[in-house]
Model the fold of this input.
Amino acid sequence: MQDLLYFSQQLINGLTIGSTYALIAIGYTMVYGIIGMINFAHGEIYMIGAYTALIAITGLASLGIAWLPLILIVALLCAMLVSSSMGWAVERVAYRPVRGRHRLIPLISAIGMSIFLQNYVHLAQGSRNIGFPALIDGGFNFGSGDGFQMSLSYMQITIFITTLICMTALSLFISRSRTGRACRAVSQDLGMASLLGIDTNRIISATFVIGAALAAVAGLLLGMYYGSVDPLFGFIAGLKAFTAAVLGGIGSIPGAMLGGLILGVAESMTSGYLSGEYKDVISFSLLILILLFKPTGLLGKPEVEKI
Amino acid sequence: MRTSVKKLVTAVSTSVALMGAGHAAAEIQIGIAGPMTGPVAQYGDMQFSGARMAIEQINANGGVMGEELVAVEYDDVCDPKQAVTVANSLVNDGVRFVIGHLCSSSTQPASDIYEDEGILMVTPASTSPEITERGYELVFRTIGLDSMQGPVAANYIAAQNPERVAIVHDKQQYGEGIATAVRDTLKDAGVEIAMFEGITAGDKDFSSLVTKLKQADVDYVYYGGYHPELGLILRQADSAGLDARFMGPEGVGNKDINTIAGEAAEGLLVTLPPAFDQKAENQALVKAFEDKGEDPSGPFVLTSYTAVQLVAEGIEAADSTDPFDVAAALREGTFQTPIGTVEYDKAGDMKSFEFVVYEWHSDGSKTPVN
Done:
């Protein structure tokens, strides 16, 4: 019983982290699916989302507003708005002017954007860790009083539910809406889609904006869950989410979700049963193994040379 | 403030470049190298504030051998790579005395360069024993060692008769070093170590670690490392309902941990150098800091002040600005400083230095527990 509770606790920890990896991974996978390139500034957009949310929360608190749902919704909207405009700007500045050139050029300009954004936040917000208020406290406890108690916090439940809503909304949007259909068309063949009268520039911008908005959601959730933000916040998370996207099959949206969950659970199980020191070793070994035996990732479709 | 410092640095280094290194007439340059930016910049502030005050006061009293001390400041971000760059620019700028660095992992590679280039270094904060284990002639410190700090923490934990203790560290030179010292002392005292595990510095998610600590049912958790990670561990442990007392070295003891951990920082145990600013004989100095609007209570403020004072007195005693003569004078002499009487052994360590256990509070204050 004890062992089962311990296992479930680690599973919950892993799924929580994994679902936020998935939210960030969507941004990588959508951009890749459409223009076949990796948006290296995506981690920074996520970090900016977390900072914006924090600024909004602090601002509302200083105005004396204490009603939690209002704070959360305003923070979420602010973060999504700022991150989306950042995502849009990244595409306009770092991708569109160099689209159609050699593949390495947008790659490098995106890395440049990432360094710029990171250092901008260093300057604007300082390089220290800033504490994030714990807005959602408490949770359920399972297990007997003297033995190991499994806890499921309201924050973790919030993360699951929000992720689920975002994922469902995204899937519906891609499969049902007009823009979603255009997205799928552009991802299949950009040239053909444009011949058929689809405004491909608009669709590409939309992809960056959607990815950035989801990253902002993850930024707010993880900022609250972990409890602090710093300008390097996006770097590691971006790396992990990128891994998740590749693991699940880059370009595939269900793949990004699956990849994120697998990575999160693998990390928490490794820390839980082996040692925290091996966490990254195991998750990246997993990535190498999957790429060796299934180079397109778990749910990816075979494609020809893209970076 | 920061821009004026930068201007000063530029001005000084330009003038040095114009005059040619080493020919700076009637002034002695004192390099101050530590983190002005980055995650542990708060400790850097303590270091710079202490060293600047010492230079100011020495100059006000007529300088050293009639010459004025000039501060030259460098930012190493507590990054070993940056520390090497800083050390090399110090060499190029012709600086021969350095107060720094702060993080052990920066001090270690930088001191290799100083020793080779004949620059005297006094670190006011690095506690890793390895720094003075290499038989270097020009390396000194005004702080104790992990091998002294670890046992103080371990003896305190052992005296509480805990059933099980977990030790976590950040895999860096400072954190792992001190964690190992704590583990060894606890083992000798017969305490059961349930866990000895590393985490990755910069990580944010410690939920798995916290679950593991809960499962191991430990009474005490010792963390070797700095406050950004411990702050998050405290907070995540608190919300997961982990019932254990946490303890850390002086690297976790600053007010930033309160902004991260909030209420969860209440009751954290920290080993720190004794509160030098509380000593009666230092009250005039404390007042001087307060008049400038600075806080002398940080653990490294007065150690940095002392480091500058020792360099100055060493130069006077040796009647020379040659770093080797000054080093010899420091090893021979006995010095009265704000951190007490200082005598050096051959390695460059102080013959005695005491650490004290404090209890940290959620408002950022601390009370001694002994």
